[in-house]
Amino acid sequence: MPTESQTAPPGFFRIALVSMLATQVAAACALAAVPVLAPAMAPSIGVDASLVGIYYGLVFAAATLVSAWSGWLIERFGAVRTNQLALAGSGASLLIASVATPPAMALTALLVGAGYGPNTPSSSQVLIQVTPPHRRALSFSLKQSGAPIGGVIAGFMLPAIVVLTGWKVALFVVFMLAATTAAAVEPLRRRLEPQAQPSRSAQRSSGLASMRLVLNEKRLRRLTGGGAALMVVHACFQSFLVTYLVQHVMLSLAVAGALYASTQAAGALARVAIGWGIDRLRNARVVLMGIAITALASSLIVATFAPAWPLVAIWLVCVFVGIGSSGWYGAFLSEVARATTVERAGFATGGVLFFAYGAHVAAPIIASVLIAATGSYVLVFSAVAVLAGIAVVSFGRIEETQTAILPQERGD
After folding, report:
1. N or C: which end of the chain has fewer CB within 10 A?
2. How far apart are CA 101 and CA 289, in angstroms?
3. pLDDT tens readout for residues 101-110
């Protein structure tokens, strides 16, 4: 049976790419909303803003469980429909946070995470069907650039809305963005999944099966090891950077939000450049190792931030933080998709993300406890640097012959 990439009109993959990029941006806004707004929300809720790490951990606890079942959801409802339902659910969940109580925040975190979990596997399944093989790394990286772009939007837009109207209105704006974007990609669903029906394989595709697939494949195991380590780096900067800059470096929320946005912008640009480079260098291993080294170095420098630091120096370090903590993700997902068949790309991605998101669960919670016990972020960012070193080793063990893009895949 011909694949969608073989039967779709020339250039159709661009429509799919733009659509999945849009949903990624909106999903990232929903994910970043509470961490960005934490300093403004905390007094109303009656908790310290540093506990945002627990919120973030709960988000990825739910995302971990649901991502493992993403293959089943995709086969049951279709990749685009799964993406739409997940995005709309994440956005709507933010409205619960308006109640401003710890239980409401916990419920918000779990529901946002449940919606975020299927986003990447479903969008990967869409792209692997329609993207020419020699453009996969760039296409996946462009799609995943939506995550830091969403962070840029959240970092600049949400603090401004807080100043004008308050944090509850900011949450409502994110909900509207998510709902509108989910509705806007409906034409793509009608094109790719005009008669989506439950498949027989949907009865067999369980979360345990996706985990077994990852554990049984050496290449997937090593990719997962490096990805999980860098997920910790990403999670800690997503959770704590704004609060760290406000509480430790004594910057205003607006300035801290702008610096956070700078990390996201750097990550978005890095993802595109890295995807483009891998498609041409034909060696993902070396590129991914370089990103992990950048994450290691920038994490150590962040740990030395102080109020006396020049703002320009802090900004420059934050740019490298964005490259190291976020730039790797699109290329990583492209390699995961290439490690399996087209039909099982979403299934394999869900299994890999079960372990990677699991790192998200533990890291922010442990970091919050450490910060509460010591009153210092230095230990946390130093530990993050160690995890980045583990990623260097894991990516370094990926065989070049397996990660290289073969000539027949390039369509040359």
Report:
1. N
2. 42
3. 999 999 999 9
pTM of the model: 0.72
Interatomic CA distance for residues 30 and 300, integer angstroms: 29
Q: Which domains does the chain have, with CATH numbers?
A: 10-189+205-410 (1.20.1250.20)
- Of 44-48, 155-159, 335-339, where does mean pLDDT reach its minimum? 335-339
Tokens of 208: 């345990």
Contacts with 63 (C-beta within 8 Å, 6 or more apart), sequence order:
113, 114, 116, 117, 353, 357, 360
What is the tens place of the pLDDT at every residue in 348-389?
888 888 888 788 778 877 888 888 888 888 888 988 999 999
Confirm if 189 and 123 have CB atoms less than 8 A apart.
no
CA angle 118, 119, 124 (to 5 degrees): 100
CA distances from 5 to 8, 89, 248 (A): 6, 29, 51
Q: What is the DSSP-derived secondary structure letter of residue 168?
A: H
From residue 49, how far is each of 38, 44, 85, 116, 328 by CA, in Å? 5, 11, 30, 23, 28
User: For 117-159, what is each residue's pLDDT tens digit?
Assistant: 899 889 988 988 888 877 778 888 888 888 778 877 888 899 8
Are residues 35 and 161 in contact, defined by beta-carbon separation less than 8 angstroms? Answer: no
DSSP 8-class letter at 132: -
> Tokens for 374?
């010591």
Q: Which two tokens stand for residue 309?
A: 């630091």
**CB 377 within 8 Å of CB 240:** yes
Instruction: Count CB-CB contacts under 10 A for residue 68.
Output: 27
- In degrees and rounded to multiples of 5, residue 172 shows phi and psi of -65, -35
All residues at 6 or more sequence positions from 310 whose CB lies less than 8 Å from its CB, including other chains? none
Helices then strands, each counted (H, E), the chain? 21, 0
pLDDT (0 to 100) of residue 280: 79
Q: What are phi and psi of 18, to 5 degrees?
A: -65, -40
What is the average pLDDT value for the chain, to the nearest integer?
84
